[in-house]
Design goal:
The protein is an all-alpha fold and 127 residues long. Helices cover 78% and strands 0% of the residues. The protein folds into 2 domains: 2-96, no CATH class; 99-127.
Amino acid sequence: MQSWKQRVRELKQEIHALYLACQDSRVPWYAKAIAACVIAYFFSPIDLIPDAIPIIGYLDDLVLVPLGILLVLRLIPPQVLTECREKAKEAMTQPKLVSWIAAVIIVTIWLLLGIFGVIAIAHILKR
């Protein structure tokens, strides 16, 4: 059980390093775009394959996120990645701060998309 906890910590640290790399001007724009997608998918409550589907539901989390991380890691310059990993490791030892602003923004986006979807479906059904 301890090894799983360690792996989860390492994954969180790597995601945080990617987040920090996205803010670095030395990282190419396409690496930032892919990193942003990977980070958003990692934190998003909505998956490509719902987790309710046995076994297959967790495969996207177990396969897509690590593959996305590996791809982005290859696109980030090594010296930038080293610096970001050090900053992420240091940040993991600090007390956790909850970003309520980010949570509100994400929930607002999902709500707006949901409302737009309901309106679109209602419009289609009217015809």
